[in-house]
Every structure is written in C-alpha cells, then in structure tokens.
Design a protein that fits this description.
By secondary structure, this protein is α/β, with parallel strands linked by helices. It has eleven helices and eleven strands. The protein has two domains: 4-71, no CATH class; 82-287, Vaccinia Virus protein VP39 (Rossmann fold, 3-Layer(aba) Sandwich), CATH 3.40.50.150.
Length: 288
Amino acid sequence: MEIPENTILSTVNYFKGELTSFYDTSELEQILQITFSHYFKLNRIDLTLKRDDILSQSEINLLKEVIDELKKKKPLAQIIGEWEFFDLVLKINEHTLIPRPETEELVQLIIDQNKEKEHPYILDIGTGTGCIALALKKNLSNSKVSAFDVSDEALKLAKINANKNNLEVAFNKVDILNWKTQTIENKYDIIVSNPPYITLKEKGLMHKNVLDYEPHLALFVDDEEPLIFYESIAEFALNHLTLGGKLYLEINENYGNEVKDLLLDRKFKNVNIVLDINEKERIVSCNI
C-alpha cells in the first residue's frame, strides 16, 4: 500500500491503520511516539505542527520495515536496538530482558533509602543490560558498583552500555545458583537483584512479544522451585552483606509472602513488601 503524499499526517494514519488490529489504542500510541521520535526526531507536538511536511521515500520504506516487524510482535526495543531506563539510553538485543518500568521503581526505592550513604558498595545480581547497576551508579555517584551475570552475551552488552553512558561498573561472570564454587571475597552494603521469577505454568498468560523474543533463561523458573534464585541470593547476602547491609529483590507478585517468609526464616530484619504503581507486590527489602 502506498502512502498518499508521504506527509507526516498521512504516514501517521498509515502507521495506525496497519497496526490497529495488533495493539490496543494506548500501546499503539506509545509505539508510534517512540518510533517517530527515534527514526525521524519528531516528538508528539511535531507530529501535529509538521503534519504537512514530507518524508522521503527511504524514510517511508524504513517505516514499513518497522511495521512488518511490529506485526510479528517483535518488541519495539529490539527493533530500534535501544531503550530508555532511568534517563539512560541502553543498547538492547535478544540476549537480555528489556528493562521494565517496575524495575525503575526498584531503583528509585534504593536511591531514596540510600542517598545519604557516603560510599556504598553495591552489587547487582543478574544484571542483564546493566540497567540497575548503571542507574544506581549514575544516581549514587559516590557508590562503587559491581554486577554479576551468568550469560557472556549479557555481560558483553552490559559493558557496552557502561561505556556508552560513561559509567564505571565492575562486571563479573558469576552463576548465583553455584556461587559457593567461586571465590568471592567482597562485602557489599547493598545487594539488589531482579532474578528470573516467572513460573512455567504462567507462560500461557504471557504475550507473544515476550515469549518469542526475550531470553527464557532470564525469565523462567521451574514450577517446583519458584524461589530457587531467592534462596541462593539470600544465602549469598548473609555471607556478603556488611553489618546492617540491605537486600532488595524484585519479585513475582504471586510469591510475596513466600519470599518474605524465606527471608524471615534466615533471620533477615525489617522485611518489607513494597507495592508497585499498579498496587502489585513487586519488591521486597530487608537488612541483616
């Protein structure tokens, strides 16, 4: 289908018309805003004020390629190859999870509760893109930040994102489920993790764009061991937090009490479940 006149207005209408049966109205509007901003440097106001401006045929062809990918439910972050997280622009690929708004809430909580600390030593377990570690380093500038991941590809991308944003984070390959087999001598004031927490039985509730394009290694846990990562992280934290050190965990909303009980059984103090913006149990915080 050709776009009449190739004006911005007609292009916007074409974009919406092609994708309206694939996405709901609010999601499609967000996708449109991000797409036109990324490729054509047009913000929401520009789309109105410059509605009669003409896009080149190469720009139209590029947009059609994006539409074809979106129809396959490929995440927009992977199509454009980057995503914003906490005022950082991060490179994205198929080897890591796309940073979520809920994780920004986790980062904000850590910043709010620790901004008075002079030189906190922070560890991010399961760093993926590096989003948590890098956002904390940027916003707690006097901190020293390290990050673990089991995936070589994730660590490679996280290092790229650190360089891209001019932030210093020490990245190391560590399998947190087998941390006792590695020599880790450091002590940390803050440990944070957004580990895999979606059970296999929940797969059927998930969208195609997640199931088909994001790494299952970073998403899923076995139905029989839904807390396996929390158990290992808790044991690690008991051995590697400084006295009074804090632990922050992003959690499956269906297992808040189970994670809380797990931490209480291991004698963690001040165990709190924090609700996210959607009133779902999303974060657990505690200290030793």
